[in-house]
Design a protein that fits this description.
The complex is a heterodimer of chains A (about 525) and B (about 500). Chain A is α+β, with helices and mostly antiparallel strands and about 525 residues long. Chain A has 3 domains: about 325 residues, no CATH class; about 110 residues, no CATH class; about 60 residues, Arc Repressor Mutant, subunit A (Orthogonal Bundle), CATH 1.10.10.410. Chain A is built from 16 helices and 17 strands. Chain B is of the alpha/beta class and about 500 residues long. Chain B starts with a helix and ends in a 20-residue tail after the last helix. Classes of the chains: A alpha+beta (about 525), B alpha/beta (about 500).
């Protein structure tokens, strides 16, 4: 099979996404009072309503409507004041009523957009840049992705197939159903077919996730399935306006899988087309282990879900007052945050974007700056994006679960910035703050680790190093000036990392000249 | 001081209240007399019940008696203290089976109390048992029940009407003082008419639908059967009101009894009573029904009300809209009966699809399958826009018709049914069966309230004839006021002659 880059020279990929997000931060399900809890014992959060018992009736969760309106406002959607719930019928044991309550032609949120900045090597994958804006100073482009709609629906239960191969239904002895997830509030976002590369798709999903996390409407865990993404992809020859036959891709449960699944499918379709074949309209399953997509079922005859307005749920009317009240709750969104960081602080665009892209880091950054001076922006960003992120990755914890607080991080950045301690000492102190949750200033005091910036002391240490390494001094003088690093290193070792590296450098240069 | 079944059978809600207050009888004696009446009239005669719940009834009776013994007055206990009450078998009652008259739910035990049930119980009612009905309420004769045929107490060779046939027959025979039914296209009013009792379908939303197994969610409404207007008003007061579990329910004050008092004391002088003359030429309408209706109009005029001729230009299309919307909603609501979690399930199916298909094929009866298939077809893509969508538009027009009509009238009168009760099997094709509901169906389409008031026996058939009193939406007080005033102008026996068997007389 040809590589993605090669395929995209001749073919244009047309990609649309469907993103399902469970509103995990709500207290109860969409149409009943059952609690939302991931990983609870099977069928412990169920009631007559979500089990579809005879006579039970749904009552919409108002907080879920607020959440979807927040999502709509954050993605530039028009909020429809009049919309309805519909019933979508299909027989399967994961949906107790054998219909899913969802929305009809008019969803709560319609016609939104999301802007993507595509940078770096993968920006080159989009060969046809019409409709995009080139980004100044950087390799890349800005493109606007249309959002068709975001609608409200309920999730289905979970089937567990027992006895078959790797949990698949075929060959299973029996199947179990867990209805804990049945009736979970779910919002489905559908994009326009505006995406052109797997990288754009990945960026879209990442950005959407950051927005949802900023809105605190979901924990957006692809691992736990609270954020799920399906892709629709078709190819057309470069320059052609006519859409090709699309396939629908499922099981892309990580950003990497989304990217790789789409990339594989684009290459697969190109091969089929280049060999004179025809792409079948079907649903395909991405298998990360074998790195290929396999056909699940043909979609050439459309399913007939017999959608009609749910007569148990009156048409929904959102008042202007309600929409305004929700709008007032909108937090600062990632794009606005980047703009603010660039305007207010000395930060480069990449750092600003990286911070804004991780809502937890961004909130911590803001809180630390509130505690410290805005001059600390750069060192704080460095600490968060490097040392702190590394710690969180290694320990697999969330920032909120650590003993670090924003005041302490600001204090630490201040101690490094004013030269009280070296950055190496800073790392040492940070590790202790994570471990003990105490103030960096106190730690510095307690450990007596101060950066040595006294010129006399520094000179004495430097002289000792030179005296102990006469051979190296000779080599240096003979032209091997790279040895300066060695001398500084030795001096740092001798002082236990307390010497001011800048002063050491200057001192050695002077003594050796 | 034992209460005889015959004495019991003649009691009204007011009599029960007085009797308990004056210690003429206890609630337990009421319950026991009721079960004795059932013992005498049920098996081989009326066959109104699908199940009896003596344990629940006696326990409730003992609670009422304990409260009375502790010094509570009947009024403190509740509007229905000590009242032997039956529930249509589509109403969930904890401790009972709720079969909906269907083999599909033959062994289904309720997991909850319907709101109308829990409100009745909270008001002190004694839950006597569950009443026969057309399967899932699809029918007008109770003949489509999977389990038994209920007989009209006025003539055991005839149907009690339907779908709430058991509820109507149990009250008309004297086995129950009152019962609850549900009405999707006339299922309270038509059997009340056939059995000669008062049956009231309030405006859509007055009584919560929670816990009542749905047929047509946008059409279904719960209401009471009793032998007097005052009794149905008190029952409605007990069960009405907004329910947080049913978002289509309405916040309606319990002022129905007050409207009855107004009708009895102030009359209806000056009220505007609407009629639609063409209705008297409706297909299949019998002369005795027309005569009884005209007589009712004379009573209304004698009471000082004004007769107003009304036009409902789109009402003719109500049946068509009903037979689109009803099956569509029914198809959807009945999807949940799939043999997976509860209900009838065939043995030995080899895969899931087969289990679905065989269980539904064997669990549902013919009329139910007919409605499911019809709804399934009407909602399919391409067909939806031809039927369902226009039906909703028609519904809007009909609703507007009624709204406009009620600007000129305070109530509208029609016959309840074009004819009196028919013989078993006499009406066999579905279309003719549907015609027995021509006067009641438009009211469910529009969402208004309607009540059946017995207005005597037909000159030809000797069977009960009913008058339907319809009110503006959510002004159900108008209906009860007119019904109470009109009721007083008749001297009608509400108990069917069969009840004579209770005092040893001939049935």
């Amino acid at each position: 099979m040809k590589s993605l880059a090669t395929v995209l020279q001749d073919w244009e990929a047309v990609i649309g996404l469907e993103v399902h997000t469970e509103l995990t931060t709500l207290g109860s399900k969409m149409f009943c009072g059952c609690k939302i809890e991931y990983g609870a014992p099977p069928n412990t959060h169920v009631c007559p309503v979500c089990l579809g018992m005879p006579g039970a009736l749904p009552v919409p969760n108002r907080a879920a409507i607020e959440s979807i309106v927040l999502a709509g406002l954050a993605t530039g959607c028009d909020i429809e004041k009049h919309s309805m719930f519909y019933r979508k019928h299909y027989f399967y044991p994961d949906m107790a009523k054998n219909f899913q309550t969802t929305q009809g032609p008019v969803a709560f949120c319609m016609r939104g957009t999301l802007d993507l900045e595509v940078l770096g090597a993968s920006a080159g994958e989009r060969t046809h840049l019409q409709g995009t804006t080139p980004l100044a100073r950087e390799e890349g482009y800005l493109t606007r992705i249309g959002i068709t709609r975001i609608h409200m629906e309920e999730d289905a239960g979970k089937l567990v197939h027992v006895g078959g191969e790797s949990g698949r239904i075929s060959g299973a002895d029996y199947s179990l159903v867990d209805y804990n997830r049945c009736g979970m509030p779910l919002i489905e976002l559908v994009t326009e077919p505006d995406l052109r590369t797997p990288e754009e798709a990945r960026l879209f999903l990442q950005k959407l996730r950051t927005i949802y996390l900023t809105l605190a409407i979901s924990n957006c865990s692809m691992e736990q399935g609270s954020l799920r993404c399906d892709g629709n992809v078709s190819l057309r020859p470069r320059g052609s306006e006519k859409l090709g036959t699309k396939t629908e891709l499922k099981n892309m449960n990580s950003f990497k899988n989304l990217h790789d699944g789409l990339a594989y499918e684009i290459c697969r379709q190109a091969e089929v087309l280049e060999e004179g074949g025809r792409v079948r309209q079907e649903t395909r399953h991405w298998e990360p282990a074998s790195r290929r997509t396999i056909s699940m079922r043909s979609k050439e005859t459309a399913d007939d879900y017999r959608l009609f307005p749910d007569p148990d749920l009156a048409p929904y009317h959102l008042s202007d007052e309600f929409i305004q009240r929700v709008a007032a709750r909108l937090p600062e969104l990632p794009d606005a945050r980047v703009a603010r960081y660039l305007a207010a602080y000395v930060l480069n665009a990449a750092d600003a974007r990286a911070l804004a892209g991780e809502i937890e880091l961004a909130r911590f950054f803001d809180a630390a700056l509130e505690a410290g001076s805005s001059k600390l922006a750069k060192p704080l960003a460095n600490l968060l994006l490097n040392e702190v992120s590394a710690y969180l990755n290694t320990e697999s914890v969330a920032l909120a679960e650590t003993r670090l607080d924003p005041q302490h991080l600001a204090e630490l950045a201040g101690l490094v910035a004013d030269g009280t301690i070296s950055s190496m000492q800073g790392r040492q102190v940070l590790a202790l703050v994570f471990a003990r949750g105490v103030s960096p200033a106190e730690l510095v005091e307690e450990l007596g680790i101060r950066q040595v910036s006294d010129t006399g002391e520094i000179e004495a240490v430097a002289q000792t190093v030179l005296d102990n390494n006469a051979d190296k001094v000779a080599e240096y003088r003979a032209g091997k000036t790279k040895l300066l690093g060695f001398f500084v290193g030795e001096a740092m070792k001798a002082t236990g990392g307390t010497a001011n590296p800048k002063l050491l450098n200057q001192t050695f240069q002077r003594l050796l000249s | 001081m034992t209460l005889s079944p015959a004495e019991y059978a003649s009691l009204s809600l007011g009599d029960i209240r007085t009797g308990l207050d004056r210690r003429h009888f206890s609630a337990r004696e009421l319950a026991e007399a009721a079960f004795a009446a059932i013992e005498a009239l049920e098996a081989g005669r009326v066959e109104a019940f699908l199940s009896l719940t003596p344990e629940l009834a006696l326990r409730a009776a003992d609670e009422v008696d304990a409260q009375l013994a502790a010094g509570s007055g009947v009024a403190d206990i509740g509007l229905l203290a000590g009242v032997p009450l039956g529930f249509k078998d589509n109403m969930n009652l904890l401790g009972s089976y709720t079969t909906c008259g269907s083999r599909m739910l033959e062994n289904y035990e309720s997991t909850l109390n319907a709101t109308c049930v829990s409100k009745a119980l909270a008001a002190g009612a004694l839950p006597m048992g569950k009443l026969n009905m057309d399967e899932f309420a699809f029918g007008s004769s109770t003949e489509t029940s999977s389990f038994k045929k209920t007989h009209n107490p006025w003539d055991l060779e005839r149907v009690p009407g339907g779908s709430s046939g058991g509820s109507a027959a149990a009250v008309a025979s004297g086995m129950l003082t009152a019962s609850l039914g549900s009405d999707t296209g006339g299922s309270i009013r038509q059997p009340a008419s056939f059995c000669g009792v008062v049956g009231f379908k309030p405006s859509y939303g007055v009584v919560s639908r929670y816990g009542v197994v749905a047929f047509g969610s946008s059409l279904d409404q719960v209401g009471p059967f009793a032998r007097s207007v005052a009794d149905v008003a008190a029952l409605t007061d007990a069960i009405c009101g907004y329910d947080p579990l049913d978002c289509t329910s309405q916040d309606v004050p319990a002022s129905f009894s007050a409207s009855v008092v107004a009708g009895q004391s102030d009359g209806i002088k000056g009220m505007r009573v609407g009629v639609v003359s063409e209705y008297l030429e409706a297909p299949g309408i019998t002369t005795e029904v027309v005569l009884a209706f005209k007589e009712a109009l004379r009573h209304v005029q004698d009471l000082g009300a004004t007769i107003v001729e009304l036009e409902l230009p789109n009402a003719y299309a109500a049946l068509s809209a009903y037979y689109v919307i009803g099956p569509c909603e029914a198809f959807s609501n009945l999807s949940r009966f799939d043999a997976v979690r509860y209900g009838f399930c065939v043995e030995g199916a080899t895969n899931l699809t087969e289990q679905y298909e065989l269980s539904r094929a064997q669990g549902f009866g013919l009329e139910t399958k007919r409605r499911i298939l019809l709804g399934n077809y009407l909602l399919s893509s391409g067909v939806y826009t031809t039927y369902y969508y226009p039906a909703q538009q028609v519904r809007t027009l009909i609703t507007q018709d009624y709204r406009r009509a009620f600007e000129q009238a305070d109530v509208l009168l029609t016959p309840t049914s074009p004819r009196t009760a028919f013989r078993f099997g006499e009406v066999s094709d579905p279309t003719s069966m549907h015609l027995s509901d021509i006067f009641t169906i438009p009211i469910n389409i529009a969402g208004n309230g309607g009540l059946n008031l017995p207005v005597g026996l037909g000159e030809e058939s000797g069977l009960p004839v009913g008058l339907q009193i319809i009110g503006p939406q959510f002004k159900d007080g108008n209906i009860l006021r007119v019904a109470a005033a009109l009721e007083a102008t008749y001297d009608i026996e509400r108990l069917a002659p069969l009840s004579g068997a209770l005092s040893g007389g001939a049935a």
